[in-house]
Amino acid sequence: MKIAVLYGGVSNEREVSISSSKGIMKALEKNGHDVIGIDFHPERLQEVIELNVDLVFIGLHGKHGEDGCVQGLLDMLGIPYVGSGVMASSVAMNKFKAKQLFEQVGIPVAKGEQYRMDQETNIDTVVNHIHTNFEFPFVIKPNREGSTVGLTIVRHESETKEAVKKAAENDLYILVEQFIKGKELTVPVLGEIHKEKSLPIIEIIPKNELYDYEAKYSVGGSEHIIPARIDEDLTEKIQAYAVLAHQVLGCETYSRADFLLTEEGIPYILEVNTLPGMTPTSLFPDAAKSIGISYEEMIEQIIQLSL
Ligand SMILES: Nc1ncnc2c1ncn2[C@@H]1O[C@H](COP(=O)(O)OP(=O)(O)O)[C@@H](O)[C@H]1O
Ligand SMILES: [Mg+2]
Questions:
Q1: Active site residue 39
Q2: What CATH number corresponds to the domain at position 210?
Q3: pTM for the whole thing?
Q4: pLDDT over 90 (residue 220)
Q5: Are residues 15 and 54 both part of a single domain?
Q6: CATH number of the domain that residue 8 is part of
Q7: Are residues 123 and 235 in the same domain?
Q8: Same domain, yes or no, for 253 and 268?
Q9: Candidate of 67, 211, 272 to mutate for ligand 1, largest count of ligand atoms within 8 Å of Cβ
Q10: How many domains does the chain have?
Q11: Are residues 66 and 167 located together in one domain of the fold?
Q12: For the residues 111-120, what does the mean pLDDT come to?
């Protein structure tokens, strides 16, 4: 097949995307496909059209790649692509909206509130509202961002304003969430619509306090334990939640759900990633590897499922 891999882009996750796409392109070539990599920018859309490819593999992350925008462009052009469509991508990227859907189907979510931070917004009013509605510690993050960019754990009143400003630098909307103390888990989901299955749960032990940018992408920044050290019943429950989250958002082919599991055994879902990282040391490929699916096989499965 002739496959274009779109990588790079304009989001904060540009570097991650470049790394993911290198892995994807190498695997596709190994699998015998004709692969063209494109450092994507809307101005390069004409090139994508002229290439007349069989399929586009979206190797982008974050804004404009993972949020449905590129998917919309490709839909309009009738070019098939891998993974979720416009609606699921867009809703998954919007953590607040996604949480509302998760809650509706009974998946535990941390108490959260969204604030619009436009030029007319009075920051002190927002800060006061947060202080009356949340107990310390809480988390402030951009509503539509990834890679833990712009996120602060707020432990004291004096920190709230800075945290609000920092999150607002990355999105028009900020999300405030009750801090959940728990194990970091992530659950890959793969499969045809209505028949999705979860791969083994990954337990993440970040070297830093948070699973932040450094812990996510630097070598040795975190340790992955697969399968996670959780009893069978709870494992099944969390896997079922991950599949349900994928389905309620309307995701297609693959996704990866992030959870925090408390000591009491409550798995709070944080988000669903519709274009999970695919660097050779990323979580999704690691889970596949743990059940004997090589990186190349996994990429091929994703391709076949997308057709
Ligand atoms: N409510 C929360 N309580 C505790 N930690 C959180 C909370 N929200 C986020 N975190 C931490 O920040 C990381 C990134 O948060 P997440 O919501 O998954 O956003 P993204 O991965 O898109 O940046 C999580 O993996 C976790 O370590
Ligand atoms: Mg996450």
A1: no
A2: 3.30.470.20
A3: 0.96
A4: no
A5: yes
A6: 3.40.50.20
A7: no
A8: yes
A9: 211
A10: 3
A11: no
A12: 97
Looking at the fold, whether 39 and 165 belong to one and the same domain comes out as: no
Q: Which two tokens stand for residue 212?
A: 């932040």
User: Could you give the CA distance from residue 33 to residue 1 in angstroms, rounded to a whole number?
Assistant: 5
CA of 48 to the centre of ligand 2 (A): 30
CA of 244 to the centre of ligand 1 (A): 20
The pLDDT of residue 217 is 81
Q: Which domain holds residue 44?
A: 2-82
Taking a 5 Å cut-off on Cβ, the residues next to ion ligand 2 are 258
Q: How far is the CA of 81 from the centre of ligand 1 (A)?
A: 28
**Ligand 1 within 6 A of 270 CB?**
yes
Model pLDDT for residues 73-95, shown as the tens digit of each residue: 999 999 999 999 999 999 999 99
Q: Look up residue 158 and give its DSSP letter.
A: G
- 147 classed as catalytic: yes
